[in-house]
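User: Run a structure prediction on this.
Assistant: Running it now.
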Amino acid sequence: MTSMQTTVNQELGLPADLLIIDADTHLTEPRDLWTSRAPAKYADRVPRVEVIDGRNTWVFDGAIVGGAGTSAVVDRAGNKHLGLSFASMSYDDIQPAAFDIHERVTLMDQLGIWAQIIYPNTFGFGGQKFVEQQDEVLRLLTVQIFNDASAEMQSDTNNRLFGMVILPWWDVKASVAEIRRCHAMGMRGVNCGTGPHVIGLPDLGQPHWDPLWDVCAELSMPVNFHIGASTDTMSWFGSSPWPSHDSNTKLAIGSAMMYLSNASVMANLIYGGVLERHPTVQFVSVESGIGWIPFFLQSLDYQQMQSTPGTFGTRYSLTPSEYFRRQMHACFWFEEAGVAEAVATLGDTNVMFETDYPHPTCLYPDSVTIASNAVRSLPEISRRRVMSDNAIRLYNLPVPATKR
Protein backbone atom coordinates (compact mmCIF):
# COMPACT_ATOMS: atom_id res chain seq x y z
CA MET A 1 0.00 0.00 0.00
CA THR A 2 1.54 3.30 -1.10
CA SER A 3 0.84 6.75 0.29
CA MET A 4 -0.48 7.76 -3.13
CA GLN A 5 -2.97 4.89 -3.08
CA THR A 6 -4.22 6.12 0.28
CA THR A 7 -4.57 9.64 -1.16
CA VAL A 8 -6.35 8.36 -4.27
CA ASN A 9 -8.80 6.31 -2.26
CA GLN A 10 -9.49 9.26 -0.02
CA GLU A 11 -10.38 11.37 -3.04
CA LEU A 12 -12.68 8.59 -4.23
CA GLY A 13 -14.27 8.30 -0.81
CA LEU A 14 -13.14 4.69 -0.44
CA PRO A 15 -11.29 2.75 2.29
CA ALA A 16 -7.57 3.50 2.30
CA ASP A 17 -6.59 -0.11 1.61
CA LEU A 18 -8.94 -0.72 -1.35
CA LEU A 19 -7.04 -1.84 -4.46
CA ILE A 20 -7.84 0.26 -7.54
CA ILE A 21 -7.90 -1.83 -10.74
CA ASP A 22 -7.37 -0.32 -14.19
CA ALA A 23 -9.24 -2.59 -16.61
CA ASP A 24 -7.76 -1.37 -19.89
CA THR A 25 -4.22 -0.24 -20.66
CA HIS A 26 -1.70 -1.03 -23.40
CA LEU A 27 1.94 -2.00 -23.44
CA THR A 28 4.10 -0.79 -26.30
CA GLU A 29 5.79 -4.08 -27.13
CA PRO A 30 9.48 -4.10 -26.10
CA ARG A 31 11.88 -4.25 -29.04
CA ASP A 32 13.08 -7.74 -28.14
CA LEU A 33 9.75 -9.28 -27.12
CA TRP A 34 9.93 -11.85 -29.92
CA THR A 35 13.63 -11.97 -30.84
CA SER A 36 14.71 -12.79 -27.29
CA ARG A 37 12.33 -15.75 -27.07
CA ALA A 38 12.29 -17.23 -30.60
CA PRO A 39 13.91 -20.56 -31.47
CA ALA A 40 17.15 -20.01 -33.39
CA LYS A 41 15.67 -21.09 -36.73
CA TYR A 42 13.04 -18.32 -36.50
CA ALA A 43 15.11 -15.61 -34.82
CA ASP A 44 15.47 -13.55 -38.01
CA ARG A 45 11.81 -13.94 -39.04
CA VAL A 46 9.80 -13.07 -35.92
CA PRO A 47 8.76 -9.44 -35.32
CA ARG A 48 11.74 -7.18 -34.73
CA VAL A 49 12.52 -3.47 -34.65
CA GLU A 50 14.70 -2.15 -37.48
CA VAL A 51 15.70 1.39 -38.40
CA ILE A 52 14.17 2.21 -41.76
CA ASP A 53 14.52 5.70 -43.23
CA GLY A 54 15.77 6.87 -39.85
CA ARG A 55 12.75 5.57 -37.96
CA ASN A 56 12.29 2.58 -35.64
CA THR A 57 9.97 0.23 -37.50
CA TRP A 58 8.41 -3.14 -36.72
CA VAL A 59 9.30 -5.75 -39.35
CA PHE A 60 7.79 -9.25 -39.46
CA ASP A 61 9.43 -11.81 -41.72
CA GLY A 62 10.70 -9.05 -43.97
CA ALA A 63 7.39 -7.15 -44.17
CA ILE A 64 6.93 -3.72 -42.57
CA VAL A 65 4.22 -3.75 -39.90
CA GLY A 66 4.38 -0.15 -38.67
CA GLY A 67 6.23 2.38 -36.58
CA ALA A 68 7.66 1.26 -33.25
CA GLY A 69 6.59 3.23 -30.19
CA THR A 70 4.05 5.43 -31.94
CA SER A 71 1.10 4.33 -29.83
CA ALA A 72 2.31 6.15 -26.70
CA VAL A 73 1.48 9.84 -26.15
CA VAL A 74 3.37 10.58 -22.92
CA ASP A 75 6.99 11.65 -23.36
CA ARG A 76 9.96 11.11 -21.07
CA ALA A 77 9.33 14.41 -19.32
CA GLY A 78 5.79 13.29 -18.45
CA ASN A 79 4.08 15.55 -20.98
CA LYS A 80 1.03 14.25 -22.81
CA HIS A 81 1.08 15.02 -26.54
CA LEU A 82 -2.24 15.92 -28.13
CA GLY A 83 -3.52 15.28 -31.64
CA LEU A 84 -1.27 13.32 -33.99
CA SER A 85 1.95 14.83 -32.66
CA PHE A 86 2.62 11.55 -30.84
CA ALA A 87 3.02 9.68 -34.14
CA SER A 88 6.60 10.86 -34.59
CA MET A 89 7.75 9.58 -31.19
CA SER A 90 9.65 6.35 -30.69
CA TYR A 91 11.23 4.46 -27.78
CA ASP A 92 13.80 7.17 -27.12
CA ASP A 93 11.03 9.77 -26.81
CA ILE A 94 8.21 8.08 -24.89
CA GLN A 95 7.79 7.53 -21.17
CA PRO A 96 9.57 4.24 -20.28
CA ALA A 97 6.44 3.06 -18.45
CA ALA A 98 4.84 2.66 -21.88
CA PHE A 99 7.10 -0.32 -22.69
CA ASP A 100 9.06 -1.29 -19.56
CA ILE A 101 7.00 -3.38 -17.13
CA HIS A 102 8.96 -2.37 -14.03
CA GLU A 103 8.71 1.30 -14.93
CA ARG A 104 4.98 0.70 -15.44
CA VAL A 105 4.59 -0.64 -11.89
CA THR A 106 6.48 2.39 -10.56
CA LEU A 107 4.09 4.67 -12.43
CA MET A 108 1.09 2.73 -11.10
CA ASP A 109 2.36 3.30 -7.56
CA GLN A 110 2.63 7.01 -8.32
CA LEU A 111 -0.95 7.05 -9.63
CA GLY A 112 -2.42 4.91 -6.84
CA ILE A 113 -3.35 1.96 -9.10
CA TRP A 114 -2.78 -1.58 -7.88
CA ALA A 115 -3.21 -3.66 -11.04
CA GLN A 116 -3.75 -3.20 -14.76
CA ILE A 117 -5.24 -5.34 -17.51
CA ILE A 118 -2.94 -5.11 -20.55
CA TYR A 119 -3.79 -5.16 -24.27
CA PRO A 120 -1.43 -5.19 -27.28
CA ASN A 121 -0.55 -2.58 -29.88
CA THR A 122 1.55 -3.62 -32.84
CA PHE A 123 -0.62 -6.39 -34.28
CA GLY A 124 -3.99 -4.89 -33.48
CA PHE A 125 -5.87 -4.50 -30.21
CA GLY A 126 -7.29 -8.00 -30.70
CA GLY A 127 -4.20 -9.49 -32.37
CA GLN A 128 -6.05 -9.48 -35.68
CA LYS A 129 -3.04 -8.56 -37.84
CA PHE A 130 -1.20 -11.82 -37.12
CA VAL A 131 -3.37 -13.41 -39.79
CA GLU A 132 -1.46 -11.45 -42.45
CA GLN A 133 1.52 -13.78 -41.98
CA GLN A 134 1.17 -16.61 -44.53
CA ASP A 135 3.45 -19.14 -42.80
CA GLU A 136 1.04 -20.83 -40.39
CA VAL A 137 3.81 -22.31 -38.23
CA LEU A 138 5.46 -18.91 -37.83
CA ARG A 139 2.10 -17.25 -37.25
CA LEU A 140 1.22 -19.59 -34.37
CA LEU A 141 4.72 -19.36 -32.91
CA THR A 142 4.51 -15.56 -32.88
CA VAL A 143 1.20 -15.63 -31.01
CA GLN A 144 2.53 -18.15 -28.50
CA ILE A 145 5.66 -16.09 -27.84
CA PHE A 146 3.46 -13.06 -27.18
CA ASN A 147 1.41 -15.06 -24.66
CA ASP A 148 4.56 -16.45 -23.04
CA ALA A 149 5.78 -12.88 -22.59
CA SER A 150 2.44 -11.90 -21.05
CA ALA A 151 2.63 -14.75 -18.55
CA GLU A 152 6.20 -13.74 -17.67
CA MET A 153 5.06 -10.13 -17.26
CA GLN A 154 2.42 -11.20 -14.76
CA SER A 155 4.94 -13.24 -12.78
CA ASP A 156 7.77 -10.69 -12.98
CA THR A 157 5.52 -7.91 -11.63
CA ASN A 158 4.21 -10.07 -8.78
CA ASN A 159 0.68 -10.08 -10.19
CA ARG A 160 0.35 -6.39 -10.95
CA LEU A 161 0.12 -6.56 -14.78
CA PHE A 162 -2.22 -9.02 -16.49
CA GLY A 163 -2.06 -9.64 -20.23
CA MET A 164 -5.05 -11.22 -21.92
CA VAL A 165 -4.56 -14.33 -24.06
CA ILE A 166 -4.11 -13.52 -27.76
CA LEU A 167 -5.76 -16.23 -29.87
CA PRO A 168 -4.64 -17.92 -33.07
CA TRP A 169 -8.21 -17.02 -34.02
CA TRP A 170 -8.00 -18.31 -37.58
CA ASP A 171 -8.07 -21.86 -36.13
CA VAL A 172 -10.66 -22.65 -33.47
CA LYS A 173 -8.92 -25.88 -32.36
CA ALA A 174 -5.61 -24.08 -31.97
CA SER A 175 -7.42 -21.31 -30.07
CA VAL A 176 -8.90 -23.78 -27.60
CA ALA A 177 -5.48 -25.37 -27.09
CA GLU A 178 -3.86 -21.97 -26.57
CA ILE A 179 -6.46 -20.95 -23.98
CA ARG A 180 -5.76 -24.15 -22.04
CA ARG A 181 -2.00 -23.63 -22.29
CA CYS A 182 -2.21 -20.02 -21.12
CA HIS A 183 -4.67 -20.78 -18.34
CA ALA A 184 -2.16 -23.33 -17.04
CA MET A 185 0.43 -20.50 -16.96
CA GLY A 186 -1.89 -18.42 -14.78
CA MET A 187 -3.35 -16.02 -17.34
CA ARG A 188 -6.75 -14.58 -16.48
CA GLY A 189 -8.75 -13.81 -19.64
CA VAL A 190 -9.04 -13.99 -23.42
CA ASN A 191 -8.62 -11.20 -25.96
CA CYS A 192 -10.94 -12.04 -28.85
CA GLY A 193 -10.99 -10.54 -32.35
CA THR A 194 -14.38 -9.45 -33.63
CA GLY A 195 -14.32 -10.10 -37.36
CA PRO A 196 -13.38 -13.63 -38.45
CA HIS A 197 -16.11 -13.37 -41.11
CA VAL A 198 -14.08 -10.57 -42.73
CA ILE A 199 -11.49 -13.14 -43.87
CA GLY A 200 -14.00 -15.81 -44.85
CA LEU A 201 -14.43 -17.70 -41.57
CA PRO A 202 -17.83 -18.28 -39.91
CA ASP A 203 -18.97 -15.30 -37.85
CA LEU A 204 -18.81 -15.60 -34.07
CA GLY A 205 -22.52 -16.46 -33.83
CA GLN A 206 -22.04 -19.74 -35.68
CA PRO A 207 -21.70 -23.15 -33.94
CA HIS A 208 -18.19 -23.32 -35.40
CA TRP A 209 -17.04 -21.27 -32.41
CA ASP A 210 -18.88 -23.21 -29.70
CA PRO A 211 -15.69 -25.05 -28.60
CA LEU A 212 -14.13 -21.64 -27.92
CA TRP A 213 -17.01 -20.49 -25.72
CA ASP A 214 -17.11 -23.90 -24.05
CA VAL A 215 -13.49 -23.78 -22.90
CA CYS A 216 -13.90 -20.20 -21.69
CA ALA A 217 -16.89 -21.34 -19.63
CA GLU A 218 -15.04 -24.37 -18.31
CA LEU A 219 -12.00 -22.36 -17.21
CA SER A 220 -13.91 -19.20 -16.17
CA MET A 221 -11.92 -17.11 -18.63
CA PRO A 222 -13.76 -13.85 -19.48
CA VAL A 223 -13.81 -12.95 -23.17
CA ASN A 224 -12.70 -9.39 -23.92
CA PHE A 225 -13.68 -7.49 -27.06
CA HIS A 226 -11.47 -4.43 -27.35
CA ILE A 227 -12.60 -1.73 -29.75
CA GLY A 228 -10.80 -1.82 -33.09
CA ALA A 229 -10.20 -5.59 -32.80
CA SER A 230 -11.11 -6.54 -36.36
CA THR A 231 -9.17 -6.21 -39.59
CA ASP A 232 -11.87 -3.83 -40.85
CA THR A 233 -12.15 -1.57 -37.75
CA MET A 234 -8.59 -0.98 -36.54
CA SER A 235 -7.69 2.23 -38.39
CA TRP A 236 -7.13 5.32 -36.25
CA PHE A 237 -9.49 7.17 -38.60
CA GLY A 238 -11.86 4.45 -39.79
CA SER A 239 -14.37 5.37 -42.48
CA SER A 240 -16.40 7.89 -40.46
CA PRO A 241 -14.55 11.20 -41.05
CA TRP A 242 -15.32 13.10 -44.24
CA PRO A 243 -12.44 13.49 -46.71
CA SER A 244 -12.27 17.27 -46.29
CA HIS A 245 -11.17 17.12 -42.63
CA ASP A 246 -7.56 17.59 -41.55
CA SER A 247 -5.75 14.67 -39.90
CA ASN A 248 -6.32 15.76 -36.30
CA THR A 249 -10.05 16.18 -36.93
CA LYS A 250 -10.18 12.77 -38.58
CA LEU A 251 -8.47 11.34 -35.48
CA ALA A 252 -11.08 12.96 -33.22
CA ILE A 253 -14.03 11.66 -35.24
CA GLY A 254 -12.51 8.25 -35.90
CA SER A 255 -11.61 7.72 -32.25
CA ALA A 256 -15.09 8.68 -31.04
CA MET A 257 -16.76 6.42 -33.60
CA MET A 258 -14.44 3.53 -32.78
CA TYR A 259 -16.01 3.32 -29.32
CA LEU A 260 -19.34 2.61 -30.95
CA SER A 261 -17.95 -0.24 -33.05
CA ASN A 262 -18.55 -2.48 -30.06
CA ALA A 263 -22.28 -1.84 -30.37
CA SER A 264 -22.20 -4.14 -33.37
CA VAL A 265 -20.28 -6.79 -31.41
CA MET A 266 -22.74 -6.57 -28.54
CA ALA A 267 -25.81 -6.82 -30.76
CA ASN A 268 -24.47 -9.70 -32.82
CA LEU A 269 -23.41 -11.72 -29.79
CA ILE A 270 -26.85 -11.35 -28.26
CA TYR A 271 -28.96 -11.85 -31.37
CA GLY A 272 -26.60 -14.58 -32.56
CA GLY A 273 -27.62 -16.62 -29.53
CA VAL A 274 -24.11 -16.87 -28.10
CA LEU A 275 -25.20 -15.76 -24.62
CA GLU A 276 -28.29 -17.95 -24.76
CA ARG A 277 -26.28 -21.07 -25.60
CA HIS A 278 -23.40 -20.25 -23.23
CA PRO A 279 -25.03 -18.70 -20.17
CA THR A 280 -21.94 -18.67 -17.94
CA VAL A 281 -19.41 -17.06 -20.29
CA GLN A 282 -18.64 -13.47 -19.31
CA PHE A 283 -17.94 -10.86 -22.00
CA VAL A 284 -16.29 -7.44 -21.71
CA SER A 285 -16.67 -4.45 -24.02
CA VAL A 286 -13.26 -2.82 -23.60
CA GLU A 287 -12.52 0.87 -24.20
CA SER A 288 -16.03 1.55 -25.47
CA GLY A 289 -17.29 3.75 -22.64
CA ILE A 290 -20.69 3.16 -21.07
CA GLY A 291 -22.92 6.22 -21.58
CA TRP A 292 -24.35 5.01 -24.88
CA ILE A 293 -25.05 1.44 -23.74
CA PRO A 294 -28.35 1.99 -21.84
CA PHE A 295 -29.94 3.59 -24.90
CA PHE A 296 -28.54 0.90 -27.17
CA LEU A 297 -29.84 -1.91 -24.98
CA GLN A 298 -33.25 -0.26 -24.86
CA SER A 299 -33.14 -0.15 -28.65
CA LEU A 300 -32.21 -3.84 -28.84
CA ASP A 301 -35.05 -4.70 -26.45
CA TYR A 302 -37.49 -2.76 -28.63
CA GLN A 303 -36.21 -4.31 -31.85
CA GLN A 304 -36.47 -7.77 -30.34
CA MET A 305 -40.22 -7.24 -30.17
CA GLN A 306 -40.66 -5.15 -33.31
CA SER A 307 -38.31 -6.80 -35.80
CA THR A 308 -38.03 -10.38 -34.54
CA PRO A 309 -41.55 -11.08 -33.19
CA GLY A 310 -42.04 -14.41 -31.49
CA THR A 311 -38.37 -14.97 -30.68
CA PHE A 312 -38.63 -13.98 -27.01
CA GLY A 313 -39.41 -17.14 -25.06
CA THR A 314 -38.50 -19.36 -28.01
CA ARG A 315 -35.13 -18.40 -29.48
CA TYR A 316 -34.24 -16.10 -26.57
CA SER A 317 -35.12 -16.66 -22.92
CA LEU A 318 -34.12 -13.10 -21.95
CA THR A 319 -34.24 -9.60 -23.35
CA PRO A 320 -30.96 -8.04 -24.56
CA SER A 321 -30.86 -5.87 -21.43
CA GLU A 322 -31.21 -8.97 -19.26
CA TYR A 323 -28.45 -10.78 -21.17
CA PHE A 324 -26.17 -7.80 -20.62
CA ARG A 325 -26.77 -7.72 -16.88
CA ARG A 326 -26.17 -11.46 -16.65
CA GLN A 327 -23.07 -11.76 -18.84
CA MET A 328 -21.66 -8.47 -20.11
CA HIS A 329 -19.39 -5.77 -18.73
CA ALA A 330 -18.05 -2.45 -19.98
CA CYS A 331 -15.36 0.06 -19.01
CA PHE A 332 -15.40 3.85 -18.69
CA TRP A 333 -12.61 6.40 -18.39
CA PHE A 334 -13.05 10.02 -19.56
CA GLU A 335 -16.81 10.12 -19.00
CA GLU A 336 -18.03 12.13 -16.03
CA ALA A 337 -21.63 13.24 -16.57
CA GLY A 338 -24.00 10.30 -16.86
CA VAL A 339 -21.75 7.62 -15.38
CA ALA A 340 -23.87 7.21 -12.24
CA GLU A 341 -27.05 6.93 -14.31
CA ALA A 342 -25.44 4.37 -16.64
CA VAL A 343 -24.18 2.32 -13.69
CA ALA A 344 -27.68 2.34 -12.19
CA THR A 345 -29.16 1.08 -15.47
CA LEU A 346 -26.50 -1.46 -16.39
CA GLY A 347 -25.85 -2.73 -12.88
CA ASP A 348 -23.03 -1.81 -10.55
CA THR A 349 -21.48 -5.26 -10.99
CA ASN A 350 -21.22 -4.77 -14.77
CA VAL A 351 -18.99 -1.67 -14.98
CA MET A 352 -15.22 -1.25 -14.51
CA PHE A 353 -12.77 1.66 -14.54
CA GLU A 354 -9.94 2.07 -17.04
CA THR A 355 -7.33 4.68 -18.05
CA ASP A 356 -6.30 3.53 -21.57
CA TYR A 357 -2.69 4.47 -20.76
CA PRO A 358 -0.63 5.34 -22.84
CA HIS A 359 -2.94 5.90 -25.82
CA PRO A 360 -4.13 9.25 -27.24
CA THR A 361 -7.31 9.41 -25.15
CA CYS A 362 -5.73 8.10 -21.95
CA LEU A 363 -6.36 9.58 -18.53
CA TYR A 364 -2.97 10.97 -17.65
CA PRO A 365 -2.07 12.31 -15.20
CA ASP A 366 -5.53 13.28 -13.86
CA SER A 367 -7.16 9.85 -13.82
CA VAL A 368 -8.22 9.96 -10.19
CA THR A 369 -9.80 13.41 -10.39
CA ILE A 370 -11.86 12.44 -13.42
CA ALA A 371 -12.84 9.12 -11.87
CA SER A 372 -13.87 10.75 -8.62
CA ASN A 373 -16.04 13.25 -10.48
CA ALA A 374 -17.69 10.38 -12.34
CA VAL A 375 -18.44 8.09 -9.39
CA ARG A 376 -18.85 10.58 -6.54
CA SER A 377 -22.65 10.33 -6.48
CA LEU A 378 -22.67 6.53 -6.39
CA PRO A 379 -23.23 4.68 -3.12
CA GLU A 380 -19.97 3.50 -1.56
CA ILE A 381 -20.67 -0.15 -2.38
CA SER A 382 -21.10 0.77 -6.05
CA ARG A 383 -17.90 2.85 -6.04
CA ARG A 384 -16.04 -0.11 -4.54
CA ARG A 385 -17.37 -2.45 -7.19
CA VAL A 386 -16.68 -0.17 -10.15
CA MET A 387 -13.18 0.87 -9.08
CA SER A 388 -12.00 -2.47 -7.70
CA ASP A 389 -14.21 -5.42 -6.82
CA ASN A 390 -15.73 -6.10 -10.24
CA ALA A 391 -12.37 -6.51 -11.98
CA ILE A 392 -10.95 -8.58 -9.12
CA ARG A 393 -13.93 -10.92 -9.29
CA LEU A 394 -14.24 -11.10 -13.09
CA TYR A 395 -10.56 -11.80 -13.74
CA ASN A 396 -10.05 -13.75 -10.51
CA LEU A 397 -7.10 -11.51 -9.69
CA PRO A 398 -4.73 -12.86 -7.04
CA VAL A 399 -4.87 -9.89 -4.69
CA PRO A 400 -2.82 -9.79 -1.46
CA ALA A 401 -4.09 -12.08 1.26
CA THR A 402 -5.07 -9.16 3.46
CA LYS A 403 -7.62 -8.13 0.81
CA ARG A 404 -9.34 -11.47 0.46
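The longest strand covers residues 21-26.
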